[in-house]
Amino acid sequence: MREAQELHEATEEYCASPLEDNLFEWHFTVQGPPSTDFEGGVYHGRILLPPEYPMKPPNIILLTPNGRFEINKKICLSISGHHPETWRPSWSIRTALLALIAFMPTPGNGTIGSLEISKEKRQKLAKKSLSWQCDTCGKIVDLLSKNTVKKPITEEEQTMLNTIALKADDSPTSDTAVNAESNAENELRQRNVDSTPTENQDRQQSDVIINQQVETMSSSNDLFWSILIASLVSAIILLVLRRLFLV
Ligand SMILES: [Zn+2]
């Protein structure tokens, strides 16, 4: 697996490797981004690859208490499993980890798996994280490299990170952005609401069609019987008349 090799060499920022007995579960370690509440912290977690990976995005679960994401819960990044629509098959586990680091200082805005706690508590957790241990990997601080040069970020990764930066700008401080976002959300919701009646209409229409079919069936049945009865009656009348005139 190309990615296992690529990520095997730890950098200062992150490292990740698959479990020995399961290639679909990886454990990763990321460095808290500098000049944020998470500076100096080291955070460990699991990456669960769906069987369809890389067509579908990985799920990310943090294990180290960090104050930004709930632990032991699939977290919501716009590139993770909760938002499969934003994922691109050309992205990788490295992309997901870069996104995770970029997401850490952004406001949670109540998304799935997000926490809003004070700067002081986050800084305390960052210090505490240095002594945190993973049951599988041991002391996580030792997993990150101290001196490896950062791997340069590719153009595509930069584009992805810019999207995250844009999302981060949608914080409650800029009203227009929030409005734009909530408008977009409303629009989406509206679209969802709109789509439901259409479905209902479709269902109703198909019901009507079925009813019509049943009606035509029953009416053609009626027609058949009335023709049969009419012909029987006329046959009887013919016989009676023949009897009358021939005698
Ligand atoms: Zn681990």
From TrEMBL:
Gene3D superfamilies: Ubiquitin Conjugating Enzyme. Keywords: Membrane, Transmembrane, Transmembrane helix. Residues 1-143 form the UBC core domain. InterPro entries: Ub_conjugating_enzyme (IPR050113), UBC (IPR000608), UBQ-conjugating_enzyme/RWD (IPR016135). Pfam families: UQ_con. Residues 171-185 have a biased composition (Polar residues). Residues 170-204 are annotated as: Disordered. The chain crosses the membrane at residues 223-241. This is Ubiquitin-conjugating enzyme E2 J1.
